[in-house]
Amino acid sequence: MIRRVSTTSSLSATAFGSFMKWSFQSSHFHGESLDSSVSPLLIPGVHVFHCPDVVGIVAKLSDCIAAKGGNILGYDVFVPENNNVFYSRSEFIFDPVKWPRSQMSEDFQTIARKFNAMSSVVRVPSLDPKYKIALLLSKQDHCLVEMLHKWQDGKLPVDITCVISNHERAPNTHIMRFLQRHGISYHYLPTTDQNKIEKEILELVKDTDFIVLARYMQVLSGNFLKGYGKDVINIHHGLLPSFKGRSPAKQAFDAGVKLIGATTHFVTEELDSGPIIEQMVERVSHRDNLRSFVQKSEDLEKKCLMKALKSYCELRVLPYGTLKTVVF
Fold first, then answer.
1. What pLDDT shows up at residue 193?
2. Which residues face 134 on adjacent strands?
3. Per-residue pLDDT tens for 203-250?
4. Which pLDDT tens digit goes with each residue over 280-296?
5. Whole-angstrom distance, CA of residue 242 vs CA of residue 213
6. Does pLDDT of 140 surpass 70?
7. Is the pLDDT confidence value at 124 over 80?
8. Half-sphere exposure of 143 (CA within 13 A, CB side)
9. Ramachandran quadrant class, 250 (left: phi over 0; alpha: psi -120 to 50; beta: rest)
10. CA torsion angle for 205, 233, 216, 290 (degrees, to 10)?
11. Backbone angles phi, psi at 81, to 5 degrees
């Protein structure tokens, strides 16, 4: 059974470590700001909730917001069939004078305890800090370039702490000049089959909120994932399962496929098997040469990664068991 409520207009308030840990367990979240132009006195917030399904959850959450003078702008609910769990995401506006940020966290945590919630996360974009992230990549840099441009334009609401690569880049390249201009450090850490430099990477990323693998062609070990303990997001060159190994686009091209895809997923110990956040596809044909085929594939990867990161930062991604996600 699926219960879903959403609206584009104002609705009266009365009427989310590794994937297994999920950083949603934190009491606050960072990410993209919601539109705060509704009122100069009111600011937006978002809350996600995951708990066993019982009667009265929506009423209790709505009453919590209404009791402080808040107003719900949108509400999504998902209850899987034959699975006694409840998911919700609400967007609301409120007066921070009447409902201080610290009190808001306490109020939602009280409800979380009442319903034995697995996660209850509230975020106020204008008050909470942004994510601190690290970007890992190898030779291909199309996803990195896209992320840097979106970040510069204010469309990727994160703080990029560093870029780490197992490939060296000349100092006079566009990417290196961009990073230097914006004070983002670049770390060249060459890897071998015997040494993946994971201890050095862990030291560089220890203070980040999550990691993005922007076409990083090295396999992170289970020890690395456990040591980091937070989410790692990867962009994969295809619809999983798909063409694996080297030159996947050429493999698909030689096979004469008619659809190409990209998958953004959480990284787990099992290679390319983590819970999927986003997937995209595009048609190709016999008229495509290898160059146009690869270009379409790279463009798709960029779009898929950016959409997944946007959903993650906006608290739209929640765990659904151990293998799936709910994406509102």
1. 85
2. 162, 211
3. 999 999 999 999 999 999 999 999 999 999 999 987 665 676 778 778
4. 999 999 999 999 999 99
5. 18
6. yes
7. yes
8. 32
9. alpha
10. -160
11. -65, 135
Amino acid symbol at 66:
A
Return the amino acid letter for 274. G
- The rounded distance, in Å, linking the Cα atoms of 69 and 221 is 48
Decide if 213 contacts 263 (C-beta within 8 A).
Answer: no
Q: Which residue has the tokens 């099992």?
A: 270
Q: Is the pLDDT of residue 178 over 90?
A: yes
Q: pLDDT at position 82, please?
A: 85
CA 169, 175, 180: angle at the middle one, nearest 5? 95
Q: Percent helix, strand and coil across the chain, each rounded to 5?
A: 30, 25, 45
Residue 50, classed as helix, strand or coil, is strand
**Bridge pairing between strands 317-320 and 131-137:** unpaired
Helix, coil or strand: residue 325: strand
Q: Which among 53, 272, 288, 299 is annotated as catalytic?
A: 272
Residues ≥6 apart with Cβ < 8 Å to 72: 11, 12, 13, 62, 65, 90, 91, 92
How many CB atoms are closer than 10 A to CB 118?
19
What pLDDT, in 10s, does the model give residues 60-103?
999 999 999 999 999 999 999 888 999 999 999 999 999 999 99
**Within its chain, how far is the Cα of 30 from the centroid?**
11
**Which amino acid is located at 13 in the chain?**
A
Look up residue 23 and give its two tokens.
Answer: 């950083």
CA 308 to chain centre: 5
Is the per-residue pLDDT at 251 higher than 70?
yes
All residues at 6 or more sequence positions from 82 whose CB lies less than 8 Å from its CB, including other chains? none
Note if 272 is an active site residue: yes
Rounded Cα gap, residues 69 and 119, in angstroms: 24
Q: Which amino acid is at 280?
A: M
